[in-house]
Design goal:
The complex is a heterodimer of chains A (262) and B (402). Chain A is of the alpha/beta class and 262 residues long. Chain A contains eight helices and ten strands. Classes of the chains: A alpha/beta (262), B alpha/beta (402). Bound molecules: iron/sulfur cluster. The site of iron/sulfur cluster has 12 residues of chain B, from α7 and α15.
Chain lengths: 262, 402
């Protein structure tokens, strides 16, 4: 039998299909867009097609993410906190602190030794330090968001973006461009700013994070510049990134679907 | 507008109660409607007060008194607070100050606050409330008396506040022109003492496992009951709650309960319509069994010489004094009510509450009680984002359930 996890975030809709052995058979990430029902259908279809599985063979679906209640044929919906914790446990079992930076939410999750959620903290009603923030900055810089990691690697460092608000940060970036500041330096400044926000989230669940295995999930984890800025902000603690970090929530949902329908 | 609102509310509730469709919560709302009607009648001598003013003493002096935050909560319950709050941007209120107070000031600017005869400020629980009293005094050109609440129960402090209360009586009687009737004061104090006894019974019933209360039953209860202290209707209301909970408790023993999690609510509830209690109960079998402000922290008052007792009562409120008072009080409540978790709404702009947030969280975790810190404006529904709110609450419950 097969189990499907669907994570409907504000930027992307991710799905993961597993079998009874908890082996990942297929994944897909599609933009959420304005109509999440369509993206749910598309993500489901793409995943099933990639695994050559028919929907009728899927025993259970668990949905997560902000649009979790939109999945009609779900067995249940579970929050992204629980799903990310479950997903990271499967990928990087030693993880005790998980940082997840999604489209409009960032969160830190403290896991117990048994992998269960012990505490969590989420960003408040503001997109600063999230995927949306990064997207707005990439737009202001006129660079592709996927190039930002590479740009960061070429920076000397030292610059910081002081504005926390996405709108003010965007105009700060525009002013820096106008001043002739190198794009790579601005990118580093942006990453430092995200790292600064993330650090306070981590400290809300683990005042002294050293000694804990730290991992990062969510689409922003693909950006190596952000990951190394967070690692530096934490005091040079290694931050592990699992394979396909944007599908960790959906993977957790698929694993929960299997457990719940056992 | 508000007068009509409270009249309609009273009539609607009375009809439902007469038709035997009333719940204890309806009786409570009926008392609130009656108080609202009196405040807006234009006939009563009204005093706007700080939260821990001696309402029983004021009622014995023939003054209809109420803390200003009550109006903020009423405006929130009727979904008009958001617009009123925006009004206060024009008079220099910072957007990150407490919305209870901003709603009241907005209502004042829109002429929705009844004109008081006098005002009684209290230095506790927060300076924001006192600033509102001062603003209202200036706006309505009325005098106010300030009760400076000492921080602990040292005998000299109790005497100091008792003397202020005596002086407050002179201040009030001079303004109203109604002399103090010692028999009335004695009756009010005796009634307050009876209410106190009944409140203790109610809270002891709520402590039972499983608890006979629903998550909504005792919401805002302790703080609002203070407004009815010293009155026969307040006593009748308290007795109705006690009798209903006793009855439920007996039925529970027979029929069992689906109570899975018991929760402590820190500070005030969210005052506008929101899904929290239903979400907790329906989805997770979780019940708010205790609110921080639902407690009796004072002793009986001597009806023949009430001032020391009233002073001690005001000082005893855990919001008074250092944060340690709140911390220890919350730890005690968590243990006595055997809660599994606590929710702190961290009302936006509350200087009193936000400063203690970390200390409260740490102290409850120390005794094994996890805390969910929300970031909610408990008054302004326009700032409420249900999706984010649900995710936090659901994740917290999933965490406890795992
Ligand atoms: S919420 Fe805080 S600031 Fe507002 S009235 Fe209550 S104690 Fe004062």
């Amino acid at each position: 039998m097969y189990y499907l996890g669907i994570d409907i975030g504000s930027l992307s809709c991710d799905s993961v299909l597993i079998n009874d052995d908890e082996t990942v058979l297929a994944t897909s990430v599609v933009p959420t867009g304005a109509r999440n029902k369509e993206s749910i259908a598309r993500a489901t279809e793409e995943t099933l097609r990639a695994a050559s599985i028919e929907k009728k063979d899927v025993k259970a679906i668990v949905s997560t993410g902000y649009g979790r209640d939109r999945v009609e044929d779900r067995l249940s919906s579970v929050t992204e906190i629980t799903c990310h914790a479950r997903g990271i446990r499967a990928m990087l079992p030693d993880t005790r602190v998980l940082i997840d930076i999604g489209g409009q939410d960032s969160k830190s999750i403290l896991l117990g030794e048994d992998g269960k959620v012990v505490d969590f903290a989420m960003n408040d009603k503001c997109a600063a330090g999230t995927g949306r923030f990064l997207e707005a900055m990439a737009r202001a810089l006129q660079v592709d968001i996927d190039e930002m990691g590479e740009l960061d690697a070429n920076a000397q460092g030292g610059l910081s973006i002081s504005s926390i608000c996405t709108v003010f940060a965007e105009s700060e970036v525009v002013s820096l461009i106008a001043d002739g500041t190198q794009v790579s330096e601005i990118v580093r400044g942006i990453n430092n700013s995200i790292a600064f926000r993330t650090l306070s989230l981590v400290k809300r669940v683990a005042m002294k994070p050293d000694g804990f295995a730290i991992a990062m999930s969510g689409g922003v984890a693909r950006n190596t510049g952000v990951v190394s800025a967070i690692s530096a902000a934490l005091g040079d603690i290694n931050v592990s990134v699992p394979e396909l970090p944007d599908t960790i929530g959906a993977l957790g949902a698929a694993l929960i679907a299997r457990e719940k329908s056992a | 507008m508000m007068k009509e609102y409270f009249e309609e509310l009273e009539n609607g509730l009375q009809t439902a109660i007469d038709n035997n469709q009333g719940s204890i919560r309806m009786l409570y709302s009926l008392e609130i409607a009656r108080l609202g009607k009196r405040l807006y009648s234009g006939e009563d001598k009204v005093a706007w007060c700080g939260i821990i003013a001696p309402f029983d003493l004021l009622s014995a002096l023939d003054v209809t008194s109420c803390f200003v935050e009550f109006i903020g909560a009423m405006m929130a319950a009727t979904n008009v607070a958001g617009d009123l709050i925006e009004e206060t941007n024009h008079i220099g209120y910072s957007s990150d100050s407490c919305s209870y107070h901003r709603a009241v000031m907005g209502a004042t600017m829109k002429e929705l606050m009844p004109k008081p005869e006098l005002l009684i400020g209290t230095t506790c629980p927060c300076s924001g409330g006192l600033a509102v009293i001062e603003n209202l005094a200036a706006h309505f050109e009325k005098s106010f008396y300030l009760l400076q609440i000492p921080q602990d129960q040292a005998p000299k402090n109790v005497r100091y506040l008792a003397d202020q209360m005596r002086e407050m009586v002179s201040f009030v009687t001079k303004i109203t022109g109604i002399p103090m009737d010692t028999e009335k004061v004695k009756f009010a104090m005796e009634t307050s003492n009876k209410i106190r006894e009944v409140l203790i019974e109610i809270f002891n019933l709520a402590k039972q496992v499983p608890s006979p209360v629903t998550g909504k039953d005792l919401s805002n209860f302790g703080i609002v009951m203070a407004l009815f202290s010293g009155t026969e209707s307040g006593l009748a209301l308290a007795e109705a709650f006690r009798d209903e909970l006793k009855q439920r408790s007996q039925n529970l023993t027979a029929s069992g309960s689906n109570e899975k999690f018991r929760l402590l609510w820190i500070q005030n509830r969210i005052q506008f319509k929101n899904p929290i209690e239903k979400l907790l109960e329906d989805q997770y079998g979780a019940k708010i069994v205790i609110d921080e402000l639902n407690d009796v922290t004072w002793g009986a008052v001597d009806p023949d010489d009430p001032y020391e007792g009233l002073a001690s009562r005001a000082i005893s409120i855990p919001f008074n004094g250092p944060a340690q008072n709140r911390v220890q009080h919350l730890q005690r409540l968590a243990e006595e009510y055997q809660v599994h978790g606590a929710i702190n709404p961290c009302n936006w702009g509350c200087r009193q509450g936000t400063g203690s947030r970390g200390l409260i969280e740490a102290s409850l975790k120390e005794i094994g009680v996890p805390v969910l810190n929300l970031e909610v404006d408990c008054i302004d529904h326009k700032k409420f984002t249900e999706g984010q709110f649900r995710t936090r609450v659901e994740a917290f419950m999933e965490m406890m359930d795992s």
